[in-house]
Amino acid sequence: MLAGKGFDNVINMAGGIKAWDSGKAVGSVDLGLDLFDGSETLPQILIVAYSLEKGLLDLYVSLQGKVNNEQVRELFKKLSGIEVKHQEIIFKEYCRASGDSADRKVFEETLVLSAMEGGMTTEEYLERYAPDLEVVADVVSFAMAIEAQALDLYQRVADRASSDENRAAMLRIADEERAHLKLLGRLLG
After folding, report:
1. pTM, to two decimals
2. What is the pLDDT of residues 142-163, one digit of tens each?
3. N or C: at which end does the chain have fewer Cβ atoms within 10 angstroms?
């Protein structure tokens, strides 16, 4: 699956499906899709995507002040910076698609979602993955899980997009998530 999504070097470290010992996969196939009904305009889709990015940024900023490990604090700072850059890309796309040169602060006041990238809330992610927030590898793995969930969500939204323009925008955002995953993978290396 990953090789077909642009990952060139996929290594099966734990036996893959042969090692699967769970009775069911984690999360439903429609996880996060309730945020998109498929009929949205491109600006509406981009507002939701920006909101999800903001949710993750807010998480990283809040966790930065809650950890004692200086390396982890710096990691959260770096992860926050990545999300800010991704928000900038989405905001520029929103302005282009809407023909609106909106003030970013005013734009952000319209965001109402309580979910993060991938469609889950902060509490759901923390409960599901239970990372040790004082351990760099746990935080990177946690961030990778969120980015993978986001990549999957954006690709599923693209699959049900109502127009080629919407599909292309969602795939561009998914590509950003893929780039985030590669960066995080290098941090583990």
Report:
1. 0.80
2. 999 888 888 888 898 899 888 9
3. C
